Amino acid sequence: MSDQLVTSLLKNACDESIGVVDSRFLCQSIGILDPKPPLSVKPETPLSEAVKVMQIKKVGCLCILDGKENLLGIFTERDVLKFFASEDKPVSSLMTGNVMTATMDAPIAYALNLMSHGGFRHLPIVDDAGACVGIISVKDIVDYIAGRMTEALLG
Known about the structure:
The chain is α+β, with helices and mostly antiparallel strands. Helices cover about 40% and strands about 15% of the residues.
């Protein structure tokens, strides 16, 4: 199924209840999650330096950006584990390329669908020109849901 068809179907679903989570939540745009600015490195960054950035910043994902801030790929803790003994290789040789992305106005349900079907936990957010402007994780969505539920219960 094409991304455009999935997006269209999800937008149509926003007009009706779709199960356990209120459709009004799932149909909000990703922007409501306030994506963190992407932590990034250049493609030629050595693996050891990329891992140090991840450790210092306590993140599980770096965006690999070219000189114009365009997304080339992502480098995650899973990539570190796959290539643990390759400290001297550039991060571009180990990154995940052809990354699925979304824009700020994409529905949360769309992001969840991409992550679920793609088997990944991080989703870079790009603008209309393809520049990487943020990143969200499954944890960001779960934290948002938990916060809203707590507010509703205490409210």
